[in-house]
Amino acid sequence: MSTHSQQAPDVRERILRTASELFYREGTRAVGVDLVVAQSGVAKTSLYRHFPTKDDLIREFLLREDEDFWRKWDEVSAAHPRSAEQELFAQLQWLGDRIARPGYRGCPQINIAAEYSDDNHPARKVAVAHKAEMRARLKRLAKAMELKDPETFSLAMGVIVDGALSSGTALHHKGPARFLQSLARTLIAAQR
């Protein structure tokens, strides 16, 4: 294997890691490729070799965020195989913990959807698919809990989760996880 092919994944990863940190902290429109190049320490030609356009880089950033999010969701799901209700509350706990972490600046998918109104933008497509997947997973949990209207539950819980992800730690003095879990209890009671 040549030295170039060994370095290519490292360069790509360095570019993506740097861009991801900048995009999350500053917003994608505020960050130009020149800043990504300067902070990652790679040549601009290397950036464009791996990401032909800034939109490609933004899309990859969001796919990376998506992968991380669903990996954590799946870990929590695997830890609660017998009770959909326990799983839901565990999911809301880690989501609340995510919101409460230092440096939290909102949900990357919601941020992207706000920055790009064009439904054909590659990153917006990832964001829309993420939210659809969230509703689908919430609906599966609602069905497993044998709630009356899983579709309505998933829509309502999805809006609550999105609101929490957008509001950050301002949600409640006891923390986002408790706030989310309290609202989930209310929705579940209304659906039984």
TrEMBL record:
The keyword Transcription regulation applies. Residues 32-51 bind DNA. Keywords: DNA-binding, Transcription, Transcription regulation. Gene3D superfamilies: Tetracycline Repressor, domain 2. Residues 9-69 form the HTH tetR-type domain. The keyword Translocase does not apply. Pfam families: TetR_N. InterPro entries: Homeodomain-like_sf, HTH_TetR, Tet_transcr_reg_TetR-rel_C_sf. This is TetR/AcrR family transcriptional regulator.
